[in-house]
Each structure stands twice: as structure tokens, then as C-alpha cells.
Design brief:
Strand order of the largest sheet of chain B: 1-2-3-4
Distance between the termini of chain A: 14 Å
Structural class of chain B: alpha+beta
Number of strands of chain B: 4
Strand content of chain A: under 5%
Helix content of chain A: over 70%
Structural class of chain A: mainly alpha
Largest sheet of chain A: 2 strands, antiparallel
Low-confidence stretches of chain B: 1-7
Radius of gyration of chain A: 25 Å
Distance between the termini of chain B: 8 Å
Shape of chain B: elongated
Largest sheet of chain B: 4 strands, antiparallel
Strand order of the largest sheet of chain A: 1-2
Mean pLDDT of chain B: 83
Mean pLDDT of chain A: 80
Order of helices and strands of chain B: HHHHHEEEEHHHHHHHHH
Oligomer: heterodimer
Radius of gyration of chain B: 26 Å
Number of helices of chain A: 15
């Protein structure tokens, strides 16, 4: 087991390395380098261009050196000094902007996973054990709709429904009066009141998917001879379903995380923009719109890392759960 | 073969027909049994035909504003005028200002029915940018009245025309994008499956890496890197390329998987023993037996591409305003208060959901049909 985990972690490092290179290439993609953009901005706002600033920036980012040296400088600054560069949009070091927002992205993604689990588990089991019932058809229909509705559209529909039926303004994570308050019970309750909207929006597609998988897995399992044998021996229907078939059918709950997490992180970006949540999404969008590439690149790098970590954790969990995997059978 | 298939066919020669049927015939029968998929295929065909003949189908030019009809609600098609049956017609709007809210309100002018006619003269256009024309599928004869079946937006532009024009951009991006990622996927997946070894390992790791990245931020970054001074058509192709660069991985995996599985099949072995060349084996035996699966996978990819375009354009990193795409149209809906008072602006969203839903159903049907020998 330890060997498996070490192997997976060792594989994780080169992947991170390749991703960082990919992100660096993306940062370099827009025409003109960092310095010309800074100069253009200063000229636009009518600022005096300071020669010493230009030299400082050139030295800091190694702009006069070849590209691979620039990359090494950039990545070693991040890894060893936690220095992501400077955002010219905000006039702040990127590191100051990124961490809190990243934390909210994590909260949102993990929250959605929990939401997906809680909702899809009972529904999946119910619609497998009551196949072709009215509720089963309803769930199937909901599943197809959930898959076909893009996140941002669902968010819009919810906001619209909330506004026109209840007069709610959804969006944000806190009511204005709690925005700047310190953490308290009341603030937490307020957070929960806001949090369910993005969780529902983010979780719907994943829930629809997981219900489908759980349902078909469980149906396959319920047809197997051992279930029939148990039924013939008079085992109660409750025990018959929960003892083994559900336990086997539930594997995708863990293995799915690896695939679902990148999707959630990805979806969270859009949903946050629509619902104006304080996650990475809106800042990243603004950075991209103004081609503030160091900020945008840092976000992309951190989001990708987050997704990779999620995959890693799900692989390890799955190995813990299922001995066939860790022994490479 | 299942008993169900038998009953579909005339009982007497059913067995014989099944025995002699080609693989494509079996697939067609299998697909036709999936009723939702067949119905969905018709809906998709309808949308694509509409997208091809946009200039003719749309009653008006999508970009010409009309100040008299700002945020006008959808009109109803009526059949009864003054209690008597009449050919399909609409009443035009007369507007007045609500004395309390000061909003413009529209009331129907029930004096004059405007019969709906086909093949009417209207706004002139260039079909596909090539041929001049001014005939539209339907419309009103009176040039002063307007038929607004989906209402209008804030500049008084006809929503139906805008949705129809948007269909051309959004649906074609899905289609072209899938062809591009098919090319990438077949090339890389084929190379990977065919050569095996280090090349295979490298390409597989690359695919895994790309699949573990959050897609939308990647799309956003790539499309933000497109030069600002590009023309609409360049941006259009740029976005298509961006979408397919991220989306080819699944196709490559399918191609590789099928390649590996089929390589071991007996008929391939037989062909090899009979002295067939590698090229002949690939194109004569492997590719045809892979096609059905590929078509199914591709069909399920198109809606994802359509959603990608809509998402990108919606948040302003895709296509931009004078271009009409479904994403651009939805960008107008960002203000919830506007939508609450004019919910017909959501019609674009309904179209997206319907098209994506139909693609998913069709794809499911095709996937089942792709393997007609299993149940």
C-alpha cells in the first residue's frame, strides 16, 4: 500500500512540472511581453515612465534572458519564495490575491462533492430498486435535463426564478451586513443561506451523472446469482440490498472524484462569475480580459494543481477501498 | 438476436433477413428502435437545416434596431378575428406608457389583423454572403407592421431572427470543432495505438494530463490569448480551434482503445495470414469496424462543443457583439431584472437545452446501435 502511494506521488511531481511549463507557454502566448504591456498601461494612464522601473522589471522577470531562463526564474520564484509575480491590474503581488480566493474555490468544490453524494445516493438506490416506476422515470428525465443545461444557464435560471417569485437577489456568499464582519455563528448561517445556490448549480450535472452510474451498477449487481441465492434463502430485502450490492455499486462515488473535481473547479469558475462569488473565477476572467497574464497564469496553475491533487487523493482512497487496484490486478 | 427484433420484422422471413443483413442494416434497425433517439435526430436535422438557410428562415435582419418595439413581448398567432375564422394572422402592437411605472406597455391593435404569408418580401440579405435576396420564409405583407413571435430585445431587434442567426454560428462551431478534434484524435490516437511502446506511453500521459486539467479555465486562457485585432471570422475559427485543442483527448482514447482491441480480432489475423498489407488492414478492416463507434462518440462531443462556445461567448471571451451566436445572445440575459420583466429573452437558453438534449439522446441511440450484436 505504502509503495503504491509513493509511486503515485512520484508520478505527481513530473505532471506538475509539465503543467507549469504548459502554463508558462500560455502566459507567453498573447502578443508582446510583460514589459511592453506595463509600459503601454503607464502611457495610457499618462504616468511618467521611469527608466529604473523598466530595468527593475527586466531584471525581476529576466526579460532580457532566453525563454527557458525566464521559465526557470518564474517557477523557482513560485516554488521557493511563493512569489507569483505582480498583477498590474491590482498593483499587488499575485500571492496576496490568490490564496483566499483559492480557498473559496476549494470550499465550493468540496461542498459540491458532498452535495452530489448526499443527493445521488438515496435517489440512485431508490430508482434501481424501483426500476421503471414513475419516480424512476422522473429521475431519468431530470438526469438528462441536468446534463443538457450548462452551469451558467442553470445559475441564471435560478437567479431569475428567485427574483421573480420570491424577490430574492441571489449572488455573493454573504449578505452585505456580514461582508466585513468577523466569523460568527450568525455569519456562518448567512453563508449557508447563500451557499446552497452555487452548490445546486455546480452539483446538478454531477448528481445526474452519478445517479445514472449508481443505478446501472446496482441493477447489474442485483441480477447476480448471489443476490438470488440470498433471496431464496430468505434474507430480508433490506439486508439483501444494503449488505453487498450497494457496497459494490458505490465504488464510483470515490473513483469519480478524480474525474469530477476538474469539472467542478472548471464549472466553479463560470458559476462564480455569474453569481459573483469571491472565488478565483471572476478575478481570473478580469485578468484574462485585460491580458494580465501573470495573474491569470498563476490562477490556472493553482487550479490545475488543485485538480491534480484531487485526482491523487481519489486514487489513493480508491486503493484503500479496493484491494484489486493497489495490487495492480 | 433478441426476440424483440424479430417481432419488428415480418415473422416468416425475419430470421433469414437477420442472417443476411449487413452490419449497417442491423445498426439501422437497432437505432430505429430507440424512439427518443429517432425523434431527436429529426429535431437536430430541423435545427441544422434552419442554420443552413438562416437568411431565408429569419423574418428580419438580426442587427437592425427598431426603437418602436423595445422589449416587446412575443406575439400570438391567431385564427379568430371578430369571432370569425380567419387565416393565421397577428395583431400589431400599439404602445402607451404606463402612468404609474412609466414603462412602455404594449397592447394589441385588434382593429387590423395582419395575415401571415409565406415567401414574402422583407429585409434584403446576401445568402451565405454570396447571393442577393429579399424573400423570407414567412412574414407580413404590410411593411409597417412586424411579426415578433419571440418578442424583441432592448434595441427592438426581433429575437426569433437573432436566435435563428445565432444557430448558424453556434451549431457550426460544434460541427467544425468536432471534425477538427476528430482529425487530431484519430491522428494521435491512431499513432498511439499503432506504434505502441514509448510513443504510446507519451501520448497516453499527455491525454491524462489534459483530462485532469480544469477545462473551462484552460479554454478561457487560450481564447484570451487570441489577438484582439482579429476579425470576426478569424475569432470564429480561433475559438473553434481552442475548443477542439482541449477536446480531442476523449476521441483519441476511443480510437486507440478500438485499435488495440480490433488488432487482436480473428478477422484481422485472417487478413494478415492472407497477405494483406498494413495499409489495407487499417483502411479496409480496422477503420470501417471503428466508424460506428466513432460516430457515436462524435455525436456526444458536439453538444459539449456547443456549450463551450456559448460559455466562452457568454462571459465575453468568445465571439463578440455584432456577431450573433447563442452565447452572445445569452450575454444579454446577465441582468436578472431585465429577464424578470422580459422572460422571452431566455428563448435562446431553451434552444440550447433542446439541442444539447437531442444530441445526447441521439448519441445514446447511436452508441447502442454501434454494437448491434449485443443486447
Amino acid at each position: 500500500m505504502t509503495q503504491y502511494i509513493i509511486k503515485r506521488i512520484l508520478l505527481f511531481i513530473p505532471m506538475l512540472f509539465v503543467i507549469s511549463m504548459l502554463v508558462f507557454v500560455l502566459i507567453q502566448l498573447p502578443p508582446g511581453d510583460y514589459l511592453t504591456t506595463v509600459l503601454m498601461r503607464m502611457a495610457e494612464s499618462g504616468e511618467e515612465v521611469d527608466q529604473s522601473l523598466i530595468e527593475g522589471l527586466t531584471r525581476q522577470y529576466g526579460l532580457d534572458r532566453p525563454l527557458y531562463r525566464q521559465y526557470l526564474l518564474w517557477i523557482s520564484n513560485i516554488v521557493f519564495r511563493g512569489n507569483f509575480g505582480r498583477s498590474f491590474e491590482w498593483g499587488l503581488p499575485v500571492a496576496d490575491i490568490i490564496w483566499e480566493r483559492l480557498a473559496w474555490t476549494v470550499v465550493l468544490s468540496l461542498g459540491s462533492i458532498v452535495f452530489i453524494w448526499i443527493v445521488s445516493f438515496p435517489i440512485g438506490v431508490y430508482s434501481a430498486t424501483h426500476q421503471y416506476s414513475f419516480f424512476d422515470y422522473l429521475v431519468t428525465l431530470f438526469g438528462f435535463l441536468g446534463k443538457a443545461t450548462p452551469n451558467f444557464l442553470l445559475a441564471l435560471i435560478l437567479m431569475w426564478a428567485g427574483w421573480s417569485w420570491f424577490g430574492w437577489t441571489m449572488g455573493g456568499l454573504f449578505s452585505p451586513e456580514y461582508q466585513r464582519e468577523a466569523w460568527s455563528w450568525a455569519k456562518f448561517v448567512d453563508l449557508l443561506k447563500h451557499l446552497w445556490v452555487p452548490l445546486v448549480v455546480l452539483g446538478t450535472a454531477g448528481t445526474a451523472n452519478l445517479i445514472r452510474i449508481l443505478r446501472s451498477n446496482l441493477l447489474d449487481e442485483l441480477e447476480k446469482p448471489y443476490v438470488q441465492a440470498a433471496r431464496a434463502k430468505g434474507v430480508s430485502e433490506f439486508k439483501l440490498i444494503w449488505k453487498y450490492p450497494v457496497r459494490i455499486a458505490i465504488n464510483p462515488f470515490i473513483s469519480g472524484i478524480g474525474g469530477v473535481l476538474p469539472e467542478l473547479i472548471s464549472g466553479a469558475a463560470i458559476v462564480s462569475i455569474v453569481l459573483s462569488l469571491p472565488t478565483t473565477g471572476p478575478v481570473m476572467l478580469n485578468a484574462l480580459l485585460s491580458q494580465d497574464m501573470y495573474l491569470a497564469g498563476s490562477f490556472l496553475l493553482m487550479l490545475a494543481t488543485l485538480a491534480l491533487i484531487g485526482t491523487l487523493i481519489s486514487d489513493i482512497l480508491l486503493a484503500l477501498l479496493d484491494p484489486r487496484i493497489r495490487q495492480g490486478v | 438476436m433478441t426476440a424483440e427484433t424479430m417481432t419488428v420484422l415480418p415473422a416468416a422471413d425475419a430470421a433469414e433477413r437477420l442472417d443476411t443483413a449487413s452490419q449497417w442494416q442491423l445498426m439501422r434497425w437497432r437505432f430505429l428502435r430507440h424512439k427518443a433517439a429517432v425523434a431527436s435526430l429529426f429535431v437536430i436535422a430541423f435545427f441544422y437545416i434552419m442554420a443552413i438557410a438562416v437568411e431565408f428562415v429569419a423574418p428580419y435582419d438580426p442587427n437592425i434596431p427598431n426603437v418602436f418595439y423595445q422589449y416587446a413581448p412575443p406575439m400570438r398567432i391567431r385564427f379568430l378575428h371578430e369571432g370569425r375564422l380567419h387565416r393565421p394572422f397577428t395583431y400589431d402592437y400599439v404602445q402607451s406608457r404606463d402612468p404609474k411605472t412609466l414603462r412602455m406597455v404594449f397592447a394589441e391593435d385588434e382593429e387590423r389583423p395582419h395575415p401571415i404569408r409565406f415567401w414574402v418580401k422583407g429585409d434584403s440579405y446576401r445568402f451565405w454572403g454570396l447571393w442577393r435576396g429579399d424573400r423570407h420564409l414567412f412574414g407580413l405583407e404590410d411593411p409597417d407592421a412586424r411579426i415578433l413571435l419571440l418578442g424583441t430585445d432592448e434595441l427592438g431587434r426581433d429575437m426569433l431572427s437573432r436566435v435563428v442567426y445565432g444557430a448558424r454560428i453556434s451549431l457550426s462551431i460544434g460541427f467544425i470543432g468536432v471534425i477538427l478534434s476528430l482529425a487530431l484524435g484519430v491522428l494521435l490516437g491512431g499513432v498511439s495505438g499503432y506504434f505502441g511502446g514509448t510513443v504510446d506511453l507519451f501520448i497516453q500521459r499527455m491525454i491524462e494530463l489534459l483530462q485532469s486539467l480544469p477545462q473551462i479555465p484552460l479554454w478561457l486562457t487560450l481564447s484570451a490569448a487570441l489577438p484582439r485585432e482579429w476579425t470576426a471570422i478569424q475569432i470564429y475559427f480561433g475559438i473553434t480551434i481552442v475548443i477542439s485543442v482541449v477536446a480531442w483527448t476523449e476521441i483519441a482514447r476511443v480510437v486507440r482503445g478500438r485499435f488495440l482491441a480490433l488488432r487482436e480480432e480473428e478477422f484481422v489475423l485472417a487478413a494478415r495470414f492472407l497477405g494483406a498489407s498494413e495499409t489495407r488492414i487499417i483502411f479496409r478492416h480496422l477503420v470501417p469496424s471503428m466508424t460506428s463507434h466513432l460516430i457515436a462518440v462524435l455525436t456526444l462531443r458536439i453538444p459539449e462543443m456547443i456549450l463551450a462556445e456559448t460559455t466562452l461567448s457568454f462571459i465575453g471571451l468568445g465571439l463578440q457583439a455584432p456577431v450573433v451566436s447563442w452565447g452572445v445572445l445569452l450575454a444579454d440575459v446577465q441582468n436578472i431584472r431585465t429577464v424578470a420583466s422580459s422572460p422571452w429573452l431566455f428563448s435562446t437558453g431553451v434552444c440550447i437545452i433542446v439541442v444539447v438534449l437531442c444530441f445526447n439522446f441521439t448519441g445514446d441511440g447511436l452508441r447502442d446501435a454501434a454494437d448491434p450484436y449485443t443486447h
